[in-house]
Write a structure and sequence with these properties.
Distance between the termini: 59 Å
Strand order of the largest sheet: 1-2-3
Shape: elongated
Amino acid sequence: MHEGGFEVRGRAPDALTFFTPAGIELKGRPDPAPLLPADPVAALKALHAAEGLEIRPETNIIWWQGERWDLSWAVESLQSYKEEQRGPA
């Protein structure tokens, strides 16, 4: 099947068996995708509200002006954050 070397044996539509290029039978199937709620936009807004997330038109505005990245500041900030999360020793 295709160029990948997979093989399909059996009779469609009920008795098909799939094999890898190494001859190993592929069993099972992936879980189906979850169903969307009746109003997915409202559900997403409710989830955001529950988590305190507010998305407004200016949310995606980039404030970066093209200046060089301050690596020392970034590393120090991450270390400080990590220490805050860890708590007192």
